[in-house]
Amino acid sequence: MKKAIGAIVVLLAIGCAAGCGTSSDSSTTAGRHSSSATSASTATETADVLNKAVGQSAGWNCADASDESCSLAFTVTALDRVPSANCSDSAPPPAGSEIYRLAIDAQAYHSTPAPNATLPPGFVISSDNWYAIDADGYGTKADVAIGCGDFDPGPFYRPLSVGQKGRGSILFALPAGSRELELREQGTPGTWRWALPAA
């Protein structure tokens, strides 16, 4: 029994180190926050998923609802469909995929908590952490569509360190019929999601 209780305490401590919020503010969920820039009808929150709108700020490892309390604050500034005709024959996207351009602004305010304290806080938004979500809620890792137009990946490829700001864009090839784009940070419970624009 003592071992079981000890294991639960350790798991809770690890989970909080990865991103528990300390504020009782209802806009803070598992160390993540949302801005009041959009109405609740366009951006809703649950314990597991924060549904975001383009232009709405988000934060990771936040103590309260302010950007400055977060290890990383970021905003998806654009999420647009790109015609597949833009893709070159020399680097085509996977068959049956649709291309989307994602643009982001980000700023790193505080260091990354344990157990990833050696990583810069900007690792959260790296290109490896994005997934397409289908109509049934299943996720597929997003592929970078390198042959489908110009983009400036900035913070998607070069994680921001404390005190740095970054702005960038990237092209993702997502399975046809995907409904949402999801950002996952493996050490934090829950994810952020943005609805994909209609074709």
List keywords for this structure.
globular; disordered N terminus; 7-stranded antiparallel β-sheet; DUF4352 domain-containing protein; 12 strands; 199 residues; 5-stranded mixed β-sheet; 35% strand
Number of strands: 12
Task: Describe the oligomeric state of these chains in a short phrase.
Answer: single chain
Strand content: 35-45%
Strand order of the largest sheet: 1-2-4-5-6-10-9
The level of helicity is under 10%
> What is the overall pLDDT average?
80
Total count of domains: 1
Low-confidence segments, given as residue ranges, are: 1-30, 34-45
Helix/strand-derived class?
Answer: mainly beta
Main sheet makeup:
7 strands, antiparallel
Shape: globular
Keywords: Signal
Signal peptide: 1-18
Protein name: DUF4352 domain-containing protein
Explain this structure to me?
With 199 residues, the protein is mainly beta. The protein has one domain. Helices cover 8% and strands 35% of the residues. The protein has a seven-stranded antiparallel beta sheet with strand order 1-2-4-5-6-10-9, with no helix packed on it. Strands 3-12-11-7-8 form a five-stranded mixed beta sheet, with no helix packed on it. β7 (130-133) and β8 (139-141) form a beta hairpin. Mean pLDDT is 80; it is low at 1-30 and 34-45.
